[in-house]
Amino acid sequence: MTTEPYSKPAEREAGAGQELDRERRMGSQTGTATVARDIRVVDLTDFEARRADITAELWQAATETGFFQLSGHGLEPAGIDAAFAAAGAYFDLPAGIKSRHALRKGLNAGWEYRSQVRPSTGTPDEKESYQLTRPHMEGLWPDESELPGFRETLLDFERRCHTLAHQVLSCFAERLGFARDFFARQHDPASPLHQSTLRLLHYYAVPEQARGQADGGWRAGAHTDFDCLTLLFQRDGQDGLQVCPGKEADSRAWTPVPARGDLITCNIGDMLMRWSGDLLPSNFHRVATPGPQDDQGPRYSIAYFAQADRDAVIAAPDGRHAPITAEEYLRQRIAANFAG
Ligand SMILES: O=C(O)CCC(=O)C(=O)O
Ligand SMILES: [Fe+2]
Questions:
Q1: pLDDT tens across 137-161, in order?
Q2: Residues framing ligand 1 (Cβ under 6 A)
Q3: Domain assignments of the chain as residue spans, ordered by start
Q4: How far is the CA of 72 from the centre of ligand 2 (A)?
Q5: Where is this region: Disordered (predicted)?
Q6: Which residues are CB-neighbours of 322 under 8 A, at least 6 positions away?
Q7: What ligand has the least distance to the C-alpha of 282?
Q8: Which CATH code for domain 31-337?
Q9: Considering 78, 203, 295, 324, which has the largest number of Cβ atoms within 10 A of its Cβ?
């Protein structure tokens, strides 16, 4: 089991500069492919009875690559299908309607298209997204007559994601020497300062004229997530996600994570890396544009980002990073990612 932090204590810096530098350095090069890394599957069945074993497995998977997948997670396939159906119906709405729910910059709420420019690539992701962050949804829901049941379906799914994310985070909390509910207390859905986000993603189909090209670039450029923990839902066969552990970033060797609808892919984000004194690594990932031999149609995914409430103070136990509020931390990362 890895117990050493994977980076040496950096000079104490006040903001998110270290993560941003890391992302810019990653760049947009293709790199090489490797299947040598294991993306572990951790079974959460009988969670309470098997908590100690599950914690050990999660810790190993998280410290090895920072990416792992969950089975036995208790989210019903019907609920996941309903969330994807709601996402598909939303993205099918005319742009004129979606633009009424335009993204509230800095608040992770609402609809945007081609507006996320990654520091690694300098070009916009080939996608549109709709984000739900509980305290900021006033005026951002489509009318019930336009999309019956949309709001209820998404709020229900978001609540289930919150519960599952905090089940996993309770294991990391305990392993790090915090109380089991340490992270849950700093992600309070009832707080007006809540920042966790459910994001529906639609990557555009490759345009006809570009379909013969061998290398189409990135649907989403290389990045690490800003949050504590991400739950990622994908559809069978809608591949493209690739991972490169941060400690191996210089190798630029990427491991594909095949998309499976029955598993939930998880990754550690930068907030938890800081909070864990760098024991739990956040890792680079990206979504490749499919080539002529792949499915070049649209791709849908859903991500749940467990992001600590604005007033939470992220401070590593050993003081290796200067304390920063979750509000200021997200503000800096969003400012570096979204145009306008
Ligand atoms: O769509 C995916 O598979 C990955 C999405 C992602 O990494 C993100 O939105 O941060
Ligand atoms: Fe991501």
A1: 999 999 999 999 999 999 999 999 9
A2: 201, 220, 225, 232, 234, 241, 285, 287, 301, 303
A3: 31-337
A4: 23
A5: 1-32
A6: 12, 13, 14
A7: 2
A8: 2.60.120.330
A9: 203
